[in-house]
């Protein structure tokens, strides 16, 4: 049944899906290059929206109502709520607008390209098991995952590390949507619940860091030594 | 039905404590809730003993011997923690001037943590298992940073980021598992039910499953404290309140390993099965040696025993990797013994360092003379964790060594070196803590009532060692059939 409807729709939808996947990758590279915190959060919101549209498209492709629920959840949490909360924290905590990096932009971009090649070479053998409509998308999802990871480890500020972390999450969801056409509903709901708890925890935690150090710069957090 | 009671009792506590969780009332409520959860778990185990595997909510919840043993140990230690917390945390509130809001945060987050630990073992759905472990991370992060000391915040941040990345990988593993299962089991939530997956494990694509297992092992392995992604573990244990250290060691590490083992049991076939087993053995040995040799340098008593947790988890991981009925029996027994003994160690040393106002080992001296009850609880719990007879850890370590001799003689020297080093690192410190002349009298004495769980749990460890109840032994044997 599902395979049948995929065949019927894939001719139109699958190119759109592919463009969305490419867009996802572009956004990941943009995150890697962006220095301003506000723009980082905006890019993250765009990723969330892209993810929601992608999920909805796959839902259209397979006619599975669960994916529509998931798309709505994604849009409201990852596209709207999360960026809003981060933005609110940014304003409340009065973080300075620039991101300090441990590695300059050109080198991280070059490293990023290598990661993309690596991701595609890992994902290529798995393509055989995927429905034709989503060929190659697992590679993109894995590449976005690795790029977000790279971003996370090259940033100094707590907020930009969190943005990298959330972008990693987005990439994973993209992998889930494209490889398995979404997770079971109960799992999706559980993950959404965790994300909400996570937002609260991040918020409380940022205020704790700020109150203790008067800054969200993480180099204050590099003092634990094995043998003090 | 009883499964729901366990979860509802544990889960309802979270909002309750968020509103009422401050002061003496909060500590009492926390204790009462966990007492009820413990009773519910005992009732559940009676049901499992009489009826065998029980299910609820369709097939979403399922309790077999493996999950039951962990649920029992989780609720027992949870109750002990609540008991100890009653006196310990109120003292901490005084010393650190914690506000009512922070007290509520502590109690409700702790309850959330205990709830997720029970949910993780009672669910049959591999996706929900991931959700529960993620919830456990999120709730315990705020416990680690509770005191708002720079050290605590740093540890909590490291914990959050490292385990967050680990869990992201584990989620990728779970997605891949679903991907492998979907062709065989069809879309929908059935395809992530462990019982279904296990029944059809031969039909799953073993290539995809192997990749999934690697992600899961690295991901959840971060939470078990397997090297090389272990570095959050000693920091988080040292920074949080001692109740949180006890909870991390006794519950979280076990449950994370439980998740890995549930995954591993789905790998079958001549290539995938041994591959997974060798990975577990390799990570186990590496972590064992690393933890053992790191212990010498530690000045902080809680860091020292955090490394000891790594060492024990490594040993358990190794035992499960070894496979075979004997090794798995020993690994499971070791899991139970370690949880009971290690939480006792953190209670005893936690109270000692609270009274001394420092976690520096060299400042904790002469406990046996100045504070006999505290001294004895430190002595008994540390001896149990070192694997002295008649504690159960002695027997499980002997059994693990014996099965290693039989099945993989190459690993025996590493095991012996690791265990010997641990003994050499901890025993002299224990002597100094107990017998050396005290530097000064403890300045903040507190009562000994909070230490009751230490004696309770150490007697359980001894019972598991010398006179293991028949039903528990049966369940321990059953585990081999489940994870093999």
Keywords for this structure?
heterodimer; A: mainly alpha; 7 helices; about 75% helix; disordered N terminus; B: about 475 residues; mainly alpha; two-stranded antiparallel ribbon; 19 helices; globular
Describe the structure.
The complex is a heterodimer of chains A (228) and B (484). Chain A has helices at 2-33, 37-62, 65-93, 105-123, 137-154, 158-180, 185-213. Chain A is mostly helical and 228 residues long. Chain A has one domain (2-221). The longest helix of chain A is centred in the first third of the chain and has 32 residues, at 2-33. Chain B has one domain (2-483). Chain B is mainly α. Chain B has helices spanning 2-20, 23-51, 65-96, 100-122, 126-144, 150-185, 194-199, 206-224, 232-239, 242-264, 272-294, 301-322, 325-356, 367-370, 372-385, 392-407, 412-435, 452-466, 470-483, and strands at 54-56, 61-63. A two-stranded antiparallel sheet of chain B has the order 1-2. Classes of the chains: A mainly alpha (228), B mainly alpha (484).
Structure in a nutshell:
The complex is a heterodimer of chains A (228) and B (484). With 228 residues, chain A is mainly α. Chain A is built from seven helices and no strands.
